[in-house]
Each structure stands twice: as structure tokens, then as C-alpha cells.
Protein 1
Amino acid sequence: MNHLLIVMTLFAGGSMLGWVIELFFRRYLDPVERLKKRFSNPGFLVGPCLPIYGTGLVALYFLAQIRIPALEASHPIIHKLVVFLLMALFMTLIEFVTGMIFIVHMHLELWDYTPYWGNIKGVICPLFSCFWYALAAFYYMVMHPRVEAILQWISRNLTFSFFIGFFYGIFVLDIIYSFNVVVRIKKLAEEYNIVVRYRALRSKVQDLAEDAKDRSAAFMLSKFTTNSLRSMFANYRENFSVKRIMMAPIKAVADKVDVTEIKDKISDIRGRREIIKDSDEEASVENDE
């Protein structure tokens, strides 16, 4: 089975499986979401797909094949622990890069670890890195042999690849639509100089949908046009804004500065200094006389 089909299959399966895990986790275990007693879409896409889990499964699959011969022969248990650590570190790296890209470039916070000890920019923290370690161990010991068996079955039944292609067709359309919504949110975030907590925004969308008894808007932002989103930002942004963007673009600051006015003030100050200097010299001459 070629590597491209392996990657495509793992990414598709991991993305959908991760979406299901997050869906039930937030419904029954999340300290905030579970109080609302409702299911909510855990991703920024419309469909049942979380790309970060798909990327993670691809990484876990290839990292699980790492072998350190000397260590594996003499200390097999330590060898497994080292492999688990590499997996957990890589998953944490994926989480950090993804989170920072969205915060810095899209002004969107997809998750928030600031309440947890040792967090870095609210994007990663030791507690969730430990969760990744446990997940890596579970994958290596339990799931990896089954994943390999599934891939072997697909290699013997290539007609199944039709469904993989179907997934990616829907996935591309979902990416285009969802990023169109995200770009509109980004523009409003820049206008109000905030970073948007995406989960809180979607939660507010669900609240408004329930108040209006409109269930069709519960899982996505499809009915929120630019004007509707602008209205939400105007009235409810405190519900889903996390902080002001710390570094405004230099150009935006420079545009507000009148350079000509500053030069005039500097020339005026220099002129006053010359007058004061001349006066001091005249007074000194008169004293000498």
C-alpha cells in the first residue's frame, strides 16, 4: 500500500474519530459545556471532522514504527516509554503550532488552557501533554496493530478508496466554506482589536438559535452573514473576546502620527533654545562690563 493512500486514510479516519471523541467529551466531561446539557460541534469546520486529530493519527502511526535497536534489546520497557514520549512531544508540538497559527494570523483562539498550571500562551500545558502521553501509549499498545490490519484490508480492497475520495471532496468544500466564515470573523476581530474565543462564539450562536427556536443554526455559523456577525460583535463580544491584540501593526500607529507637526515642534524647541542661549550670552557680557 503506497504511503499517500496510507496518509489519506489515516487522516480521514483520525479526523472523524477525533470529532466523535471531542463531541462526547464536551457533552459529558467538559466543565462548562456539560452544564448546558447539549451537544455542540467541537471543531471550526461544519462537518464531523477535526483535522488536528487526523494529523495526530498520521504522526502516531509513523512514530510507532521507530526502533532504537540497542535500547529495545536491553531495555524493552524503557524503549516503549521513550517512544511514547516522542509521540507525546510531537502531538504537543502539533497542538502548539496549530493554536498559535490561528491566534496570531486569524485572531482566533480554538481552545484555552490558561486555567491550567504551566500553560504556554494558553495553547499547551503539562496536563494535556500528559493526556497526549497516555493517548500515545494506548495507541501504541492497543490501536496500532488494529490500524495496520485495517490498512492491510484496504490495500486488498482498493474499491474502498472511493469512500476516501468522497471524504476529501466534502472536506475541501467544508474547508472553503468554513474559512470564508473564519475570514469574516478575523476582519471583525481586527476591527474591534480582540482575539475571539471560537468555542464561546459558537456557544453564543447556539444560545441565540435556541432563543429563536431555530435548530438549523445550532451546529454551524451558516446563517450568520457579515451583518449578523457584526451585530453579534457589537452586542455580545464581551462573551467571546479573550484579550486585546498586544502588538498593533506599526503602520497603524504611524498613520496616526503627523510627522510634519512633530518637525515643526522640534524646530520651535530649537529656536527657543537659541533665544535662551543668546540671552544668557548677553547677560554674561553685561556682567563682565
Protein 2
Amino acid sequence: MNIISKLKKGSFIALISALILSGCSFPTSHSPVEELKQDIKEVSETLENQQFPTETAIISSEDKATETESDIVYEDGSFLEAHFIDVGQGDGALIECDGQYMLIDGGTADQSDKIYSYLQNEGISNLDYLVCTHAHADHVGGLSAPLNTMTVETVFAPVTETDSKAYTNFQKGVANQGLTIVHPNQGDTVSLGNSTVMFLGPVTEDVEDLNNTSIVLRIDHGNNSFLFTGDAEREEEETLLNSGCNLKADVLKVGHHGSESSTTYPFLREVMPTYAVISCGKNNSYGHPDEATLSKLHDAEAQVLRTDEQGDIVIVSDRNNLYVE
């Protein structure tokens, strides 16, 4: 085999450079060809033994909007994965951080199999936290899957209930686990691995609109932050703004599936996300996401990711950088 063909891709240029730097002279009409072959052989052996760095695609904290695809090399340390599960017209998100797990909503009851399969594929048999953001069926229905198939340590939900079949089954599942539902207050925090989960809302609960009883929580992982808003609409967004809580986040789970009733300009100006994830069903009858909401997200220069178009979406944090899978 020709010696040049043994070199790694791109090494021919390196070979010539190495010859020049090493003081090797190119043959003239008076230079022995064998001397050149020997020089090439020596440089070739050096290059073959050299450790070439592999390419990494890291999104810096200043430029988190670039997606990466494969062969990602993470920095050493703690990792958080936010899985936005495609549950059709509903919400479902799994947060993994350093071997601990939080499930936020589970779609409708007919998505129970999807939720169960997803958790199984992730090797999860115990959830540290389960969050029902509010009592609507497209958020609480699929939570019956983990409540009936694995152990759950703590369950969070708003105070406001409903007598729907989906919510009743959720309550039964919690009771069968021997648990009592925890109603978090604004400012309450829990640890998930090396991340901190802070409950921001609801500040007050509007019993006339279950959407505005939604649990809103922020997850901080190093320099990265994620904001989950359930179906919070403009009224709850305004209450959050008036409370003075920190809403800034790199990743926003857009409220109410991208409905026009959520994601107001004042709220979006406080969050200013790099990524905006919309969970909705393909060709859904509600027209989600609304064009007005998409326009506002475009104005905010947020990169929009949609489960109806992209399926399951995973955003990974290594405390300093974000990666989209």
C-alpha cells in the first residue's frame, strides 16, 4: 500500500508542513530518492502515533441557539436532560438530573402507554417527583401510568380540583401509593440532583379558570434555566410579573400549547428564552400554536421547537452549555 494512503484524512498537508518544520529538504536532481522515502516514513509514523483532537459542538452560554446533532462531547460534571415528550394535544415533560427524576404532566389518559414506554426506555422505575400542573385532562390523564406501574416519592398539584374522571383516577393513584398531594407555595424549592426546582406559581388560584391554577416552576442547573408554565394564561402571567419573581430562562415551555391567551409581550420580555418549546398535537382542532404567539416568539428571537413537527425533543444542560437532540 502507498505510504500516503495510510495517513489520516487531511494529514498530507500536515506531512508537508512537518517536513518543512523538521528541516527536511525536497529532492533536487542530485538528492537521493531513498532519503526522501525515509523522511516520509519517519513523519508518517509520527503522525500515526499522534492523538488528534475530536471535534466537539458546544453551545456557549452566550450563543445557546445553535443545535447540535451527533457525537456531542459534554464537559465533565453534572447533566440535566429535559425531555419534552410528544403526547399529542397535551403536555408531558421528563426531567433527569444526576440520577433523579421529575415528571411534569402526562398528556391525556390515552397517552398512558406512551408515558409508560418512555419511562421504561429511560430505565426509570422510581420517580422522585411527579407534578400535575393543573387538573385538566390533557395534563393529568397520562399520570395514571407511573402512579400504577412504579414508585413515586412526592406528588405536587394545585389546591384546585375537579371531578373529572382523569383527575379522580389521578387522586386514586396517589392514594394507592400511600401519598398525600403537596400543594406548593411560591418560593418553595426542592433539589433534583445538582439542580434546584423553585415553584413560582400559582400565586393565587382562579377557580373560574383551571388554566390559571397552573403550577409554574423554574429549574436552575448551573448557568442554565428552564421555565415550565403549564397552561398559565395572561392573568396568571400578570400575577407572576407583579410578584417580582425571577422569570428569566434559557428554555421556556410555552404556556397553553402556544395559545393566543398566553405568552404576552410583558411576560416574554422577562423570560427572554433562547428556546421556546411548544407541546401540541399535529393538526389539532384548537389551532395551536396561534400565529400571534409565534410572531411574538419570533420578535423575541427565540428558537421555536414543536412536538407536533419534531416529535420528542430533548434539551441537555451541562451547567454551562445547552444541546438540542
Protein 3
Amino acid sequence: MKIGKIPEAVLKRSVLNQIHTRREEVLLGASVGEDCAAVTVAEDEMLVMSTDPITGTVQDIGELAVQITVNDLASAGAEPVGIMLTVLLPERVSEQKMRHMIAQAEAACAKVHVQIMGGHTEVTKAVCQPLISVVGVGKAKKGKLISTAGARPGMDIIITKWAGIEGTSIIAKEKEEQLRTRFTQPFIDGAKAFDQLLSVLPEASIAVKHGVAAMHDVTEGGIFGALWEMAEASGVGLEIDLKKIPVRQETIEICEFFDINPYELISSGCMLMAAADGNTIVRELEKSGIPAAVAGKAVQGNDRVLYAGGERRFLEPPKADELYKVV
């Protein structure tokens, strides 16, 4: 199989279709497009959990491990509480490097008041570069859980910030020498600084207060992959105007340099939402300095359509992220 997310057909056939055991405490379980699970722990409260590995980059791996997991919990409308880390290291990695990764993770946790609750560290021949797998735990009141599957026909589809911002930052850091052959240092430094935009906690909090029905953090597979996953999870079609999907000029130019698609580039920090009144949520986000746009609508049926000028094309299931073509 190719590097990246397992194809949806394989995921359904060989993973999800093998899971049959159920418990009544589990309110949200394994499904296409869902980033979290939820378990009842009290009459009015539930635990929300998420898990993710960081495999696409080594730079800032500790910070990304925390940020991506906290984003998943926020996308479910949960308050992040803690994380558990599994850190797998190749033999050549020094103790100093390991210490730096954990310090990064702790600094990221301190920003959002999340505790590193435990985990596992190991040096192993099974990996050729550091790998961190994270389990995140959050809490939410019953009735307040937001899933990827909440989009309904007629709802607006909202995109916050910009597509491809995480991938742009990773490429700018990992491929700085190559980029210098075309771009100025201030341009590259600006792209690297996109890593300051990766938290979606503020927009998730605002959206929950103003009627959001579905949220999905845009990670591997980019905005095209996230759109497909939300539509698949919700059982709806989509009509999306490509020109209304926000993307930064730095992302466009760096993607052109490496001949990759910015809309299929890992995009943590960009949030996909569905709501009956998308314009109200956009206005509320903009009041807090968070750019957002209504890019289209959910519709009846299964057609997931992109409009670009006079052209009409269909979205496809998520493919391997464009980042893997570069780093």
C-alpha cells in the first residue's frame, strides 16, 4: 500500500468491518471521517478521546503532537484535559534530542492547560526517524458533542483560516535550502511562521456557541479529503465553489514550486464546519480575528461536486497527502 492514509475502501473493508463488539457507554465510535470517540462517564458528562501519530516531519514534532490532538478534541466540542505519548526513537537519536521533543510537547501543553498524563518511550529498530503517537482525552457535557457526521442538506459549509497552512510550514522548514533557489528569505520565514496558526480551539469554541452542526479538523488529505470525509460521515452531497476555498499566496507558490496540489496538502489549523446559518458563524469568527468563508452547501444525494469557473468536477476519496511527495 502507498504511504499515507489507508484508502477508504480498504479502511471500510479491512478495519471498520472487522469491529463488531459494542458497549452502550460508547456514544461515538470508529467511523469514516470521525477523529474522536466518546464514552459516558456520568449522567451528564462524557470523556472524548482522540489518537494520532506524527509521521510527516521531525522538526517541531513535540509541538505538533500536542496541537493536532488538541485540535481533534476541540473539533468534537470537548475541553482538552490531558494526553498520553508513545515516543518511538531510532538508535541514532540522542538523549538531548528526546529531551527537546518532550520539552516542546510540555510547552505546547502549557499554552492550553493540558497535562501530559503518561505514556511510553522506547528506542527501537522498527523506526528510522522519531515517531510520536498521541492519545488525547477531553470532557464534554452530554448533548454538546459535535461530530463530523452532523452536516445536513441545505447547511452551509464553512472553512476557517486557509487550506494547506500546516503543510506549507513543514515544507518551508524541511526544504528551506531548495526554496532559497527561488524565494527570498523573508518569504520563506513567513511560510515557516504558519505554524503559529495551527490551533483551532478559538474557532471551535465560537462555533459551538453559534449553532455549528458539524466540525472536522483538516489534516492529512487536505481540504479535499476533509470535505469528502464530512460528506461521507454525514451521508450528504456537496456543492463547493473552488474559488471560495481560502488559500494563502505563500501556499500557492510553494506548491507550484514542488508541483503539488494545495487542496490535498495537510492543513491543521484549518477547520471545516457545517451550519444552518454559516454567515453568522463567519461574522462571529471575524470579530475575533479569525478569517473564515462559506465555500458551498451540503445537498441531498451522494454527489460531491467542485465548481471552478465554468467547470464541474467530482471530489474523490482522500488520497496520500501531497506532503509525502516533498518530505
Protein 4
Amino acid sequence: MGDIKIAIAGVGNCASALLQGIEYYRNRGPEDSVGLMHYDLGGYKPGDIKVVAAFDVDRRKVGKGLREAAFAKPNCTTIFYENLPDYPVRVPMGYLSDGVSDHMSDYPDDVTFLPSDEPEADVARILRESGAEILINYVPVGSEQAARKYAEACLEAGVGFINAIPVFIASDPDWAGRFRERGIPIIGDDIKSQVGATIVHRVLTRLFENRGVRINRTYQLNFGGNTDFLNMLNHGRLSSKKKSKTQSVQSQLATPLASPDIHIGPSDYVPWLKDNKVCYIRIEGSGFGEVPLELELRLSVEDSPNSAGVIIDAIRGMKLALDRGVGGTLDSFSAYTMKSPPVQRTDDEARQMVEEFIAGKRER
């Protein structure tokens, strides 16, 4: 089927886990592919993904080779495949804009961003010259301006855009219309982990609903020790994340909960947890005879590989769209892989839509 040429904006933990995963699964067969939702997706396998460009804003990564950047501080995700190739890719300065919060300077160098003073690269030109077909947006939560600049660069360069962060682009009708007019596919917004806090909360919410239990109140509290959680200590950068996670869960209810009865969002930063994310979910409901029912759950995951297990499908789904000349928002893969797609679906519905798209029975 050929290579899938991708570029990455933000060589952080999520990018590191994705690069490791591509190599980890490259020479594995379907019988030895634990951790993948699809080993073969429309004829494309994980090893078909080739990184041809990458951008970052941290001085420890800018100007470095991609392999070195993937393991540089403040990255702290588990290294499950250390022998990355010596990619012929150097990391230029990306869009700084609002990508680094001021409060980051209050923390030790090994856990926080250190902005480079290099001039910003011409992203659209690099995308064109590298032959990139798809750009994955992994910039930090709250980087609204930077995310939109990368989307603009994709429109200029004719490159597909996967928006893995909670900035509303694919789900914004104006942005979606611009990608559709240019015939460029887009998937978004805000990556939904393979088995993460939000998808577990969604499934449990749907279970209560389907079994006739009324949900009265619920919360989801998350904390971890990577730069994502450190970044979100600035609550001014958190509003889109909370909105994305909350509406993702609310979408599974026939009647959404009143605002005081639902609380979902990152709660704190615990440095020694590193890339481990701990989630607590509580649901209070009323069952048969309106007798109270309560559920509490604790979930502990390595955050970035959990994300990479989903993005590796989004990449291959977008490649199928490119092969077929499909532009605009990919409704199937957006609903399947993202917390805030243009149209919310149940997870079973979204998976069925994806299978239909892969089989060519669905346009987008």
C-alpha cells in the first residue's frame, strides 16, 4: 500500500509513545499485535507510517534529530521500545504563540518546558517539501493560537490535519468548511484514549442509561505527573479541556445533567507519577423503586501509550480518506477517536461507522 508520511507538531510524551509503537509493531504479525484496535486497517499496518517532519518549541529538542528529541526532557513516558531508528528528520522551531504557560517557569527544568529562542520555521513550506500527507497536532492543552496556526499551515500546504488536543477546529463549522472546500481531510477534536478516563466514564454512563438507572450526580477526577498535568495547573488554559471531557460524557445521556451535578476535569499535578494518570470516577444513581445506587472506580494508566493506541488508527483512517479523495471532517473516525467530534455518537455506533468506512460502505 505504500508509506503514510506524517508530520508531528509537538514532540512530547504522546509523540514519543507513537514513535515507539510504530517501531514496536513494525515486524509483528496479527497474532502478535496485542494493544492494537486494528492490526490491518484498510490494507495499512503500523509499520507503514513514516515520520517525515516534526516541530517543537523546547530548546532541548529544537535543532536536534527526531530520535534524540523523542527521549529528551521533559518527556517522561515509559520507554517500551528504545531502539528507534536514526530518522533523517531534524526538529525545527514550531509555533510558540500561546504554547507555553507563564507558570511553567516556577518549576524545575527537568519537568517543564524551556522555550527556545530560535525563529519560528515556515511550517507550510516544510510540510510541502517533506512530502507530509498528515500533520498530528500534539501541542499543549490551552494552545489555542498555536493549534490554529498549524491548521492554517495544513490548509496552505494541502495536508490532512489530526487535532489531538481540545481546541475546537474539526467541530467548528467554519474550520470544517474550509477543509471541505479545499478537499483536505480533518479528524478532531481532543484524542480519546484507548481505555482512558473519558471512554470508561462514557461507557458506564451509557450502561446506567440503558439499564434504566437515573444518574443523579457524577464526577471524574484525574491527576498525573507529566507536563500535560503541569500545564493544566493554570486553570485559564483548562476551560476547553473541561468542556471537551464534560460534553463527551453528557452526550451519552438522554437528558444532560445540570451543571452542579457533573464535575469532570484534571485535578492536580503529582510529579512522581510521571506519565502515569490516575482517575477516580463516582456515579450516584437511582434504580428500581428509586433505591440509591453508587459506583466508584479507580483507573491507573500510562497516559501517552494509551493515546497512541488510538492515534495510530486515526492516521491510517485519514490515509484511506486521502487515497479516496475525501475532504472535510471524517465523521466516523472523529466520533471513534475523539472526545469532541462534530457529532457525538455512542462508542458502539462510532466503531460501526469506522468499520463501514474502512470497507468503503461509508463516504466519511
